[in-house]
């Protein structure tokens, strides 16, 4: 069996249409704690859509036109919503033990997505071009150099930071989120912990 046939066979076994597009879900999925992942994904769609338009129009458009400032506000608040829901999703899934029953890969990919999102948000703050971003650039320069990243990343180079923010990190995040979703669809959502029944005296 060659590698293409092996991959096709494994994907067809684990990613059936019933797993990818289920028509029914367990009753516990209707709880709010299972909705933070969907809210995170919805906020990410607004982040990407507004970011693509801003990148296409350029900084002169979104800094000096009314419509551009409005879209810039949408991008800013969608990022706030994205991190709020993603943090809630991470905390809730941690206390639910979402790595149970063979879901370790799903958990690890989700944590990696959180880390890449933090770095992408940081490069976004550095790309604003105001005094706040310039101060952060200078202050973070020594940290990046001390981490040994000065050989391929100059945090004071605005063009390099902007390219990383709108191309490199979103591309990595897109792959991780897609992988995370496929893992969730393959293994299903993690069920709640079973209830602990109090033992009666003498039983």
From TrEMBL:
Residue ranges annotated as transmembrane are 32-54, 74-92, 104-126, 162-182
Its domain of life? Answer: Bacteria
UniProt domain Cytochrome b/b6 N-terminal region profile: residue ranges: 1-193
Q: Which controlled-vocabulary keywords does the entry list?
A: Membrane, Transmembrane, Transmembrane helix
State the SUPFAM superfamilies in the record. Answer: Transmembrane di-heme cytochromes
This protein's name: Cytochrome b N-terminal domain-containing protein
Which source organism does the UniProt entry give?
Fodinisporobacter ferrooxydans
């Amino acid at each position: 069996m060659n590698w293409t046939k092996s991959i096709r066979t494994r994907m067809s076994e684990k990613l059936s249409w019933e797993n990818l597009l289920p028509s029914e879900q367990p009753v516990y999925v209707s709880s709010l704690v299972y909705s933070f992942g969907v809210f995170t994904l919805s906020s990410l769609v607004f982040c990407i859509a507004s970011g693509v338009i801003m990148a296409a129009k350029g900084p002169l458009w979104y800094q000096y036109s009314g419509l551009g400032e409005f879209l810039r506000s949408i991008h800013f608040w969608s990022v706030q919503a994205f991190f709020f829901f993603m943090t809630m999703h991470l905390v809730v899934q941690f206390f639910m033990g979402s790595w149970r029953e063979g879901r370790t890969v799903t958990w690890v990919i989700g944590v990696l997505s959180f880390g890449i999102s933090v770095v992408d948000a940081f490069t976004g703050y550095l790309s604003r071009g105001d005094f706040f971003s310039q101060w952060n650039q200078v202050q973070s320069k020594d940290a990046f150099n001390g981490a040994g990243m000065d050989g391929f990343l100059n945090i004071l180079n605005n063009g390099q930071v902007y390219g990383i923010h709108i191309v490199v990190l979103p591309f990595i995040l897109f792959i991780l989120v897609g992988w995370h979703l496929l893992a969730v669809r393959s293994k299903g959502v993690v069920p709640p912990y079973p209830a602990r029944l109090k033992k009666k005296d003498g039983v």
